[in-house]
From TrEMBL:
UniProt GO molecular function: thiolester hydrolase activity
Xref: SUPFAM superfamilies: Thioesterase/thiol ester dehydrase-isomerase
Family annotation (InterPro entries): HotDog_dom_sf, Thioestr_dom
UniProt source species: Parvularcula marina
Protein name in UniProt: PaaI family thioesterase
Length: 155
């Protein structure tokens, strides 16, 4: 994995812990063979293969792409933070361009361009091995949790 440079030590440790948890404990993500290939401030990239068990016939199910992008966009937001904070997806728009066969290679790149007023704005794309886009998502995430008694509801 290449290091994009300006990550804080706390952020690097949190991302490493998240990756370990996802690959060994998380009931969904431990079944998806992928690894980080680049992590930088506000940008992440993963490579892997599409697992057979998320296929809808001879192609991958579109919901799989949405779940994968939602998570990788959140990782991009975490990579932009100085310290790890919990997040929740508040909006996710996914566009689909073409199908992909189970077992084929994939690459996912996601960026987090800004975090303003506790809202992270992120984009990401899943590509085939020959760099053809399969699906793309734009997501916004609520960063941190607040007590309603202190700040009131943000939603």
């Amino acid at each position: 994995m290449t290091n994009g440079g300006d990550l804080t030590e706390a952020t690097r440790k949190a991302l490493d812990a998240f990756h370990h948890h996802a690959q060994t404990q998380h009931e969904l993500f431990k079944t998806i063979p992928m690894k980080p290939t680049m992590v930088g401030r506000g940008v992440v990239e993963f490579e892997g293969r599409f697992p057979d068990h998320f296929a809808d016939g001879k192609v991958m199910h579109g919901g799989f792409f949405t779940i994968l992008l939602d998570t990788v966009l959140a990782v991009a937001a975490w990579s932009r933070m100085d310290t790890f904070e919990p997040m929740a997806t508040i909006n996710l728009k996914t566009d689909f361009f073409e199908g992909a066969a189970p077992g084929s290679e994939m690459r996912i790149k996601a960026t987090c361009d800004s975090i303003a007023d506790d809202v992270a704005s992120c984009q990401g794309t899943i590509y085939t091995a020959n760099n053809s886009p399969i699906a793309q998502a734009d997501g916004t995430f609520m960063v941190g949790t607040k007590s309603p008694a202190v700040k009131g509801s943000r939603l």
